[in-house]
Amino acid sequence: MDSNRTAKLEFAVQMSCDRCVNAVKGVLEKEPGVQSVQVNLGKEEVLVETALTSSQVQTLIESTGRRAVLKGMGGSESDLGAAVAMVQGVGLVQGVVRFLQLSQERCLIDGTIDGLQPGAHGLHVHELGDLTQDCRSCGDHFNPFGKPHGAPQDADRHVGDLGNVTAGPDGRASFRLEDSQIKVWDVIGRSLVVDSGEDDLGRGNHLLSKITGNSGDRLACGIIARSAGLFQNPKQICACDGVTLWEERDRPIAGTGRRVTDTPAAHL
Ligand code: ZN
Fold first, then answer.
1. How far apart are CA 157 and CA 63, in angstroms?
2. What is the CATH number of the domain that holds 64?
3. Last residue of a domain, one of 15, 49, 74
4. Are residues 87 and 162 in the same domain?
5. 112 occurs within a structural domain
6. Do 47 and 8 meet the contact criterion of CB atoms below 8 Å apart?
7. 238 in a structural domain
8. pLDDT in tens, 38-85
9. In whole numbers, what is the pLDDT of the chain averaged over residues?
């Protein structure tokens, strides 16, 4: 399912000595899905060229006992823009999904969504970035060409149709897709929604099959926002409110959980 195309992932990693560098390099370099590893100890930065998902690489780095935070993603040769959606919903469903435009025809979509029921869940870009009524106000599947609902590989489909992602027994869906119809510049400002059920990809007999894929309720959603590409995010420590980059990942962007003394939310 994973694409063989590689991307470059830029991680901030807590490292203080050459031994740390060797430990991080060691664990990554023996992984078959990793093409190259560059470590900059001074900047506490690790650049990994890989076909693995960002969460797989993060897990590998963190297996050395260090925290890692994804700072940027880029194409192997060039990229034409990046975006990110922080997906949240009722209950414990939350995730981060990144979009990276590798060329006019190739958009890499890398994400992790936690708190799902095990099994398949429809994933779609919706027309509107309006979450004023939670996920109900973000409109229909993004469909600029007036096509019927379909599968990601169909030529005739909604542009927003990304098919299904599959959560494991732990409730986590970790995925990496490549899509030919999604363009980062067309989806920024719209929203990404994950559904409670499986998308039938327009193949079902249900009335909603050609409209939504009959994939159930909207579980969680997030606005797709422009994000940093490679080396565009120089941040190491956020001094503004005493939250370091290492704590950043476990905290909401704003609100009471933001304070250093609060218990970190379930991590991303
Ligand atoms: Zn659709």
1. 41
2. 3.30.70.100
3. 74
4. yes
5. yes
6. yes
7. no
8. 999 988 899 999 989 888 999 999 999 888 888 888 876 666 888 999
9. 85
Quote the pLDDT of residue 255: 53
255, 130 in Cβ contact below 8 A?
no
Q: Among the listed ranges 20-24, 137-141, 196-200, which one has the minimum average pLDDT value?
A: 20-24
Residues with CB under 5 A from ligand 1 (ion): 141, 149, 158, 161
Residue range(s) defining the domain that contains residue 91: 82-226
Statement to judge: residues 187 and 69 lie in one domain:
no
Rounded CA gap, 252 and 255, in Å? 7
Sequence-distant (6+) residues with CB within 8 A of 42 are none
Q: What pLDDT, in 10s, does the model give residues 108-136? A: 999 999 999 999 999 999 999 999 999 99
Which range among 132-136, 155-159, 191-195, 244-248 shows the weakest confidence by mean pLDDT?
A: 244-248
| Residues recorded for the chain | 268
Q: How far is the CA of 81 from the centre of ligand 1 (A)?
A: 24
Distance 123 CA to ligand 1 centre (A): 9
CA 104 – ligand 1 centroid, Å:
21
- Distance in Å, CA 82 to ligand 1 centroid: 23
Q: How far is the CA of 161 from the centre of ligand 1 (A)?
A: 5
Please tell me the distance between residue 151's alpha carbon and the centre of ligand 1 in angstroms.
8
Q: Evaluate whether residue 263 is within a structural domain.
A: no
What's the 65 CA to ligand 1 centre distance in angstroms? Answer: 42
Q: Find the 66 Cα to ligand 1 centroid distance in Å.
A: 40
Rounded to the nearest whole angstrom, what is the distance from the C-alpha of residue 211 to the centroid of ligand 1?
6
CATH number reported for the structural domain that contains residue 177 in this entry: 2.60.40.200
Residue 63 sits in the same domain as residue 144: no
Residue finishing a domain among 74, 95, 121: 74
Distance from the alpha carbon of residue 247 to the mean position of ligand 1, in angstroms: 37
Place of tokens 């994950």: 194
